[in-house]
Automatic annotation (TrEMBL):
TPR-type repeats, residues: 53-86, 627-660
Transmembrane keyword on record: no
Entry annotated with the keyword Aminoacyl-tRNA synthetase: no
Organism: Tetracentron sinense (Spur-leaf)
GO biological process, one term: transcription by RNA polymerase III
Protein name: Uncharacterized protein
GO cellular component: transcription factor TFIIIC complex
Keyword list, A-Z: TPR repeat
């Protein structure tokens, strides 16, 4: 038989007082239904026995565990209304209202309690009221409360030390330093280890107001005793005080002491690294920011912890900057590359999540709008498709459930919820990677250094991710720099398709730049012959810029590569009309005419051959008898069978030592990058010697052929 009592309500709700208390203390491991049941049982028990304060305290504690501070404050306030002399309820109600941001309500409760108990009030209430005043920067009112407590509750006696210290802190904030030192005198006479919290509170107050010397005096009181042993936070505060006093050496030593126990404190490590850099100790800063050598001793596989400090993005960023400043480019790339790649990937995923959220919020508005039929039918169709898809999924789920139950198996759905979960935004290792100038320069530096080390695939991955995320927000100058970088990557990768658009953009921006066209041709020469985008673009550029020579030359080169020498000669001659004094164009026309003369269908071969050599000699004149021009004439003579003339010109080539010339670069390409070329890459003596040895060998002069190879081709 059930009776109307708190015991019956406990047991009818399947919760004993012990279980309720246990639930209140361990809500983090209890299911939500048990917490709700405990709260329901407590409320019913309070209704059955309103005078039992223990139940009310239990319910208020449960609200605190759940993080519902407003209801906890109201519960303690109710207890205080029922038991006006309950000091604990008064203090807890004030603390909870303060957590809810209702400071005035918190103060009024404490002041009312003191007013209602003028002679027997608990000094802990005065202490709490003064602390609330001090947190809200009303130190004069806090001091008034402490002085009032001295005159009312401590007649002929000294105030407790904690109230005296609070009075001294108020004097410090009010600018009465002499009075504050008098009040702190008792604290200095006491044993520091017994008053660690009070000494720390005084020192923190001095430090917050910029009185670093006074703060140091109290911090050092703790540092010498057991309280300062392995106290990383204390050493950290001392180091900040020394740093503010410009005593860098002592600040550095205390930062090291702090990091012995607070090795995962990223801000302290970065501050110490900056100090070391300012002192010119780059190697020491690198050692500080580098992973420890013995990683086995730092990894704990039995506990679930966050990533170690050396995986932090800020640490890697600082370390990479040091490497880059010292010119250690390989270490720079190895340090920061993984974080940059992960950050760009996360930013890409986050952008997709944001787009999905915007689409999800815009869908109801679009469906409920009363616009024209053309604007409303698409959302309605999407909603209908989504509804059918959900119905199919639900039916399939029910079939799987029925089959599992029929087989006597436990049913566990693959989907935890009927509705798909919204993917949450992830935190990036480098949160500001796409937002400020420093991180933009970091991306450019990484890509440039990866190109130096020929890590083209990784460079292309970084470049594509960054371009995808930022192309709509960057300035025109930065966009052009990124496209130039993409063209440079494309000209070196095995698959330049990804960077073709960048090379095309560079040419569009600089249609008359031979350097831009050189890069474009380098990309095109590595693609398939029938690349549709290239053909259309080349035709467009020729129609738009009729006086632009590079498209004609590139088209002529492509015709030459498929042995259409007559069409190639026509293109070269069109370019010759515009630039008759160009050595390159004269060379191209000459080689095209000589190749055409060697064909079977041409009738006036000798005339065509003579014209071809005329252009080659014109190239020799314009090049001022350069080694390259002489070699081209010799190679042409050898090609048509005039080996005697070819031998004479090869000998002229061997007599010249050609210096190296810089390889053409993109308009915005960094000029300081190394060429990665061996010395003598412009010298044609080895090629000329080899061809000359072939002529001697064919004519039977084997000794002469061997001597030429020995003199010019032996390393």
């Amino acid at each position: 038989m059930l009776v109307n009592s708190k015991e019956s309500i406990y047991y009818s709700g399947l919760a004993t007082p012990y279980e309720v208390a246990k639930t209140a203390d361990n809500t983090s491991v209890c299911p939500a239904w048990q917490i709700s049941q405990a709260r329901y049982c407590l409320s019913k028990a309070i209704t059955a026995d309103p005078e039992d304060m223990t139940l009310r305290f239990d319910r208020a504690s449960l609200y605190i565990e759940l993080g519902d501070y407003q209801k906890a404050a109201e519960s303690y306030d109710q207890i205080l209304g029922l038991c006006p002399k309950n000091v604990e309820a008064c203090k807890m109600a004030a603390k909870m209202y303060q957590k809810c941001g209702q400071v005035e309500r918190s103060v009024s409760i404490l002041e009312a309690f003191l007013k209602d108990h003028p002679t027997e009030a608990d000094l802990s209430v005065v202490n709490l009221l003064a602390a609330i005043y001090m947190e809200n920067n009303t130190h004069n009112r806090a001091l008034q409360q402490i002085e009032h407590a001295r005159s009312i509750y401590c007649l002929g006696e000294e105030l407790p030390l904690y109230l005296t210290v609070k009075a001294g802190i108020c004097q410090v904030h009010l600018g009465n330093m002499e009075m504050a030192e008098i009040l702190f005198r008792d604290l200095q006479l006491e044993n520091g280890e017994d008053n660690v919290d009070l000494i720390t509170e005084v020192a923190d107050s001095f430090m917050s107001l910029g009185h670093y010397e006074s703060a140091l005096k109290y911090y050092l009181m703790l540092e010498g005793g057991n309280a300062g042993h392995n106290n990383g936070f204390l050493h950290l505060k001392i180091s900040h005080c020394f740093l503010s006093l410009k005593e860098r050496a002592r600040a550095i030593s205390f930062f090291y002491e702090a990091l012995r126990t607070l090795e995962d404190n990223i801000d302290a490590r970065l501050t110490l690294a900056s100090l070391l850099l300012e002192e010119g100790k780059e190697d020491e800063a690198i050692l500080l920011l580098s992973p420890p050598k013995k990683l086995e001793s730092t990894n704990d596989t039995n506990t679930v912890q966050s990533k170690p400090w050396w995986h932090n993005g800020k640490v890697k960023m600082q370390l990479s900057r040091i490497y880059h400043a010292k010119g250690m480019l390989q270490d720079f790339v190895d340090t920061i590359f993984s974080s940059v790649r992960e950050s760009l990937f996360i930013e890409t995923m986050n952008q997709k999540v944001r787009k999905d959220e915007i689409a999800a919020t815009a869908m109801p508005n679009a469906a409920s709008s009363r616009g024209s039929p053309t604007t409303c039918w698409e959302p309605m169709l999407k909603a209908a498709r989504a509804k059918k898809s959900l119905q199919k999924k639900a039916a399939l789920k029910e079939e799987k459930k029925a089959a599992a139950l029929a087989a006597g198996l436990d049913w566990q759905s693959d989907d935890s919820d009927d509705e798909p979960k919204q993917q949450a935004l992830r935190e990036s290792p480098l949160p500001k990677l796409l937002k400020d100038e420093d991180h933009y320069r970091l991306i450019v530096d990484i890509c440039g250094d990866c190109i130096i080390f020929k890590r083209y695939f990784l460079t292309l991955h970084i470049w594509k991710r960054h371009t995808y995320n930022t192309m709509n927000t960057l300035s025109v100058e930065k966009k052009e720099e990124l496209r130039s970088l993409g063209a440079q990557i494309a000209s070196n990768t095995t698959d330049p398709t990804h960077g073709y658009d960048c090379a095309r953009y560079i040419v569009q921006q600089h249609p008359y730049s031979f350097a831009a066209w050189n890069c474009y041709y380098k990309v095109i020469s590595r693609l398939e012959n029938r690349f549709s985008k290239h053909s259309k673009f080349l035709h467009s550029m020729r129609c738009t810029h009729k006086d632009c020579v590079p498209p004609m030359i590139i088209f002529g080169h492509q015709l030459t590569s498929i042995s259409q020498h007559q069409a190639a000669a026509r293109e070269y001659l069109e370019a010759y009309k515009l630039l008759p004094d160009s050595p390159l164009i004269n060379l191209c026309v000459g080689t095209a005419l000589i190749n055409l003369a060697l064909g079977f269908r041409l009738q006036n071969k000798h005339q065509c051959l003579t014209q071809g050599f005329a252009f080659l000699y014109n190239n020799l004149r314009l090049s001022e008898n350069s080694q390259e021009a002489l070699y081209n004439i010799a190679r042409a003579y050898q090609h048509v069978g005039l080996v005697s003339l070819a031998a004479s010109y090869y000998e002229k080539v061997l007599a010249i030592h050609e210096k190296d010339y810089p390889i053409p670069k993109l308009p915005s390409e960094h000029s300081g990058l190394p060429e990665n070329q061996k010395p003598g890459y412009c010298n044609l003596r080895k090629e000329a010697a080899y061809n000359l040895h072939l002529i001697y060998k064919k004519s039977g002069a084997l000794d002469l052929a061997r001597q030429v190879l020995k003199d010019h081709c032996t390393p």
